[in-house]
Amino acid sequence: MAKKILIIDDEAHIRALLEHALEDLEDEGVELLFAKDGDEGLKTIKKEKPELVFLDIMMPKMNGYDVCREIKKDPGLNTSYIIMLTAKGQTSDKIRGGEVQADEYITKPFNPDEILIKASTILDVEI
Questions:
Q1: Which among 8, 10, 29 is positioned nearest to 126, based on CA atoms?
Q2: Is 77 contained in some domain?
Q3: HSE on the CB side for 60, CA within 13 Å?
Q4: For 77, how many CA atoms within 13 A lie in the half-sphere containing its CB?
Q5: Cα–Cα distance between 19 and 119 in angstroms, integer?
Q6: How many CB atoms lie within 10 A of CB 91?
Q7: Does 85 reside within a domain?
């Protein structure tokens, strides 16, 4: 079964940048999935059960903190590795990310090469 990465971000250019950064993983059989808001993202997680989720915080309908909290409290979903990927870089934001049990917290702007390396390491996929 193919490994899956879900990108949840309300900004189309960020979704496109992440898709471009992670396209080498598609060559290795990893499926990239996308959601444009927190509500759609949570529904996609429940349906697809991705191994890795890149999750923005500031989104319509449901923010990233609430999405992460819902994922981590559900025993059927909490195996997804959650990386908060956000412009919110204050210490208090990072602490809140820890409180909702995000596995990592990365601030924008990000280095696409580092995102690819991190994803390949988490999914144990050679690039």
A1: 29
A2: yes
A3: 4
A4: 20
A5: 12
A6: 7
A7: yes
Is the full-model pTM beyond 0.90? yes
The verdict on residue 126 lying in a domain is no
Owner of token pair 């927190």:
38
Tokens for 15, please give them. Answer: 């979704």
Instruction: Assess contact for 111 and 79: CB atoms under 8 A.
Output: no
For residues 44 and 65, what is the distance between their CA atoms, to the nearest angstrom?
16
Strand segments (E) across the chain: 4-8, 31-35, 52-55, 81-86, 104-107
Q: Which residues pair with 7 in a beta bridge?
A: 34, 54
pLDDT in tens, 56-103: 999 999 999 999 999 999 988 888 999 999 888 788 888 888 899 999
- Measured between its terminal Cα atoms, the distance across the chain in Å is 18
Within-domain flag for 46: yes
Per the CB < 8 A criterion, the answer to whether 70 and 44 are in contact is no
Q: Check which CATH number belongs to the domain holding 63 and give it.
A: 3.40.50.2300
Nearest Cα neighbor of 4 from 42, 26, 31 is 31
